[in-house]
Structure formats: structure tokens, C-alpha cells
């Protein structure tokens, strides 16, 4: 029980042989903004938008405060991805993985979202990062079901869920407002009992 409560109250660092996932801090502001700007065109087709029109963009501080409030409430967690093996001091951010919409009680479910710098895509880093988060969700947060929603046109993300072994639950019409319009998504899901090993072990079998 104590480890479960600690998991809800803090964004625990997660690591593999290649990756370190950690909580985003105010010190990351310039690096995070620079990385998002450098990948603006790469990420634009998959980024959420406001169906009521574009409000003033959320400041980095406001975004950070929202993420910390969600973590404190146990409704969502977000990690930035780094490669400490290649950068011994202050490894730069290369992407982000988030868990949102966490429900406890009878459902014990959540959604996973992610993005990665275009120059680091294609090396298996995103499935590895998601595997760390999935293992944390099942083992520490004791969730039962995780889902990932992907636009059918997003071939790179489809490869991620294929490697993770999530099942395809079908098409959801106009599911999310993305890149200026309501977009269809395919929902992929995994229940805890379907995973016979850790997810990190599964992707390297």
C-alpha cells in the first residue's frame, strides 16, 4: 500500500539500459520549447487542438503546474525522455510520455500518449519508453487496463503499438480534435492479465 501511495503522489523516475524517464521541471523550459519548435511540422498532424478556437497558448509554467496538480491528484503523470548513456551531464530531452485520464475504483484504467524528436525516431526508443511506463502503471499504480488512441494515418505510432502487442479495438469516429478538425482514431488496449512478463521483457523477446 505504501508503494502504491508513493506512486500516486510523485512522478517516479523510470529507467532502462538506454533511457531515463523523469519528471519535467522548470529547468527544462528552454530545452523543451526548443525541441517542440524544431519538431513543429513533424508533430503538427498529431497534436491536439481546441475545437472552440485557438486560445492563448498555455505557458510552460502553467503546463508544468497542471501536470504537477494531476500527479498530486493521481489522475495523470508525465515523463520527459533522455539518453543518459550518451550524455553524462544534463542529457537533453528527446521526447515525452504521458498517462492521462486515470480512473481508479472499478475501472482502474488510463490512456497513454507520446511524442519523440524526429531525429530519434525509428530506433526503438519509443516502444522502450512506453514499456517502462506500462510496467509502472500495472505494477506500481495497479491499473488494470491501458489504451493508446492513434490516428489511422500515423504509421509510426501504429508500429509502436504493434511492437507493444496492444490489441486493436476498432475505429472511433471523430474521437479527438487534432490538427484543426475532429479526427477518427483507432483504439488499442491491453489488460494487465494479458501481459505474462514485464512489457520491457516482451519488447526484447
Automatic annotation (TrEMBL):
UniProt record similarity statement: Belongs to the acetyltransferase family. RimJ subfamily.
Protein name as catalogued: N-acetyltransferase GCN5
InterPro entries: Acyl_CoA_acyltransferase, GNAT_dom, N-acetyltransferase
PANTHER family reported in the protein's UniProt record: [RIBOSOMAL PROTEIN US5]-ALANINE N-ACETYLTRANSFERASE, GNAT FAMILY, PUTATIVE (AFU_ORTHOLOGUE AFUA_3G00765)-RELATED-RELATED
Gene3D superfamilies linked to this entry: 3.40.630.30
Stored PROSITE patterns: GNAT (PS51186)
Keywords: Acyltransferase, Transferase
Domain N-acetyltransferase: 19-189
Amino acid at each position: 500500500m505504501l508503494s502504491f501511495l508513493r506512486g500516486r503522489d510523485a512522478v517516479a523516475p523510470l529507467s532502462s539500459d538506454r533511457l531515463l524517464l523523469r519528471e519535467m521541471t522548470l529547468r527544462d523550459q528552454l530545452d523543451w520549447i526548443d525541441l517542440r519548435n524544431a519538431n513543429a511540422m513533424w508533430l503538427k498532424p498529431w497534436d491536439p487542438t481546441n475545437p472552440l478556437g485557438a486560445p492563448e497558448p498555455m505557458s510552460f509554467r502553467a503546463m508544468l503546474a497542471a501536470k504537477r496538480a494531476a500527479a498530486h491528484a493521481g489522475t495523470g503523470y508525465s515523463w520527459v525522455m533522455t539518453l543518459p548513456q550518451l550524455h553524462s551531464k544534463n542529457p537533453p530531452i528527446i521526447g515525452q510520455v504521458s498517462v492521462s485520464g486515470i480512473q481508479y475504483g472499478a475501472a482502474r484504467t488510463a490512456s497513454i500518449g507520446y511524442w519523440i524528436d524526429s531525429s530519434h525516431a525509428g530506433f526503438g526508443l519509443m516502444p522502450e519508453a512506453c514499456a517502462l511506463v506500462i510496467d509502472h502503471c500495472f505494477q506500481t499504480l495497479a491499473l488494470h487496463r491501458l489504451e493508446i488512441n492513434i490516428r489511422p494515418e500515423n504509421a509510426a505510432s501504429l508500429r509502436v503499438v504493434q511492437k507493444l502487442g496492444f490489441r486493436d479495438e476498432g475505429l472511433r469516429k471523430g474521437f479527438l480534435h487534432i490538427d484543426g478538425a475532429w479526427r477518427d482514431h483507432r483504439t488499442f488496449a491491453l489488460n494487465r492479465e494479458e501481459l505474462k512478463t514485464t512489457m520491457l521483457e516482451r519488447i526484447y523477446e
